Amino acid sequence: MATMDVLSAKLLRSSLHPHAPCLPCPSLPSRRYRRPSSIYCRLTTSSLPSSSAATTSEGDANQDLTALLSDESTTAAPGAGSRKKRPNSGASSIPSGVRLENISKSYKGVTVLKDVSWEVQRGEKVGLVGVNGAGKTTQLRIIAGLEEPDGGNVVKAKENMKIAFLSQEFEVCASQTVREEFFSAFQEEMGVKTRLDQVQAALERATEDMDLMGRLLDELDLLQRQSQDVDLGMVDVKIQKLMPELGFVPEDADRLVASFSGGWKMRMSLGKILLQDPDLLLLDEPTNHVDLDTIEWLESYLKTQDVPMVIISHDRAFLDQCCTKIVETEFGVSKTYKGNYSGYVLAKAIWVETQRAAWEKQQKEIEHTRELISRLGAGASSGRASSEQKKLEKLEKEGLIEKPFQRKQLKIRFPERGRSGRTVLAIHNLKFGFGDKILFNNANLIVERGEKIAIIGPNGCGKSTLLKLALGTEKPQEGEVILGEHNVLPNYFEQNQILLPGRSS
């Protein structure tokens, strides 16, 4: 009787839990989770055996049911996770977004970040700039919780903040359809829903084992606490609404991810992030390997988003269009400039000139003081000389103005060659393609000495192929590609250039 009272209490607790999803009654169909069967099958990871096929012994059946139980249902508080969270330390607070305070980070004794402090709030789009190796991506990884800083604090607006990180390599599954790829953004939530269904079905089979039934009820209560009450019907609506915003047409939903170019895969990755309604968006080189049309689309789309953003990009025009604030990291120290990239370049130049003028003035004063000390060093004026010496020592210890660092501009020099003939490259009636895809059909082009030509177009239209045809590494199917005969030496710097041994950048 006591056991039944405990089970009754657990059933009541599960049914009244404020965060519990509306579970379907065993005897009635559920309207809340009704969705297309193909989607359900794709996202379900396991299923329970039907009662008609249950031929195992009672002990084996109980063992299968026990496998549904998680350790947390008996050993941990509901909703408790195993991952440790770094607390927001320090007295500072921020209404939205995130703040870095005096962050430092070293790798194998090499200091990458020494004193990094900046913040991003709602409506702001921060561009992180600096040379390769300055620690830009490291800052994003620290914010995302993928790495821990050696010192300093990461202050977040709220404890369970949703931080979305779009890395340089877009995370998509080539074998999935576009619709399935977007649904994968809710994999964790749907996993909880699947387990809820499984545990509820298992309860119907555990009626003879009161102990197991009690443990299953505990598991049900735990899952209800973890569940975010996902409505799969609304998920589908959100995806259908977002796809045209990202540039997809309805027919794209059932196409394989593998059939899309890098620019479209970037849109998929961004869409998966936005579907989760993040509190902070981190973008690491989002314009890598995408065409101009996609970059222009991304600029326009990000402008419409109010979520706080941190962007790393070497595309100055992109930073100009998107950013409201620039954070430069140099020698491990950050400095914040208001405005876009062009504003940062101007403000940085003014600061360098002002700093240089102040440094030169101080250096003249120091030199003058040293000469004065040298002249007054003997005789009746030695007391004054001693006083000037103390002032100089104090200045050198506490008040020296640092000389602004000016990085040397990279200069590229090509080997000297004799003057080439007038025609450097001639393409006549070129036809070329791969399989059924025709890239060039009766294409013609003349390149003359001294010309600098930009080849533009969407990804996959044949820009790199045209260069390979000019070099002779690809052969035309029809027509001809002719290099100039007099002093023409072709060379090719590939998109993914192979580094020399021992070189990392």
Automatic annotation (TrEMBL):
PANTHER family: ABC TRANSPORTER ATP-BINDING SUBUNIT (PTHR42855), ABC TRANSPORTER DOMAIN-CONTAINING PROTEIN (PTHR42855:SF1). Residues 72-96 are annotated as: Disordered. Keywords: ATP-binding, Nucleotide-binding. InterPro entries: AAA+_ATPase, ABC_tran_Xtn, ABC_transporter-like_ATP-bd, ABC_transporter-like_CS, ABCF_ATPase, P-loop_NTPase. Residues 98-356 form the ABC transporter domain. The keyword Nucleus does not apply. This is ABC transporter domain-containing protein. Gene3D superfamilies: P-loop containing nucleotide triphosphate hydrolases. GO terms for molecular function: ATP binding; ATP hydrolysis activity. PROSITE patterns: ABC_TRANSPORTER_1 (PS00211), ABC_TRANSPORTER_2 (PS50893).
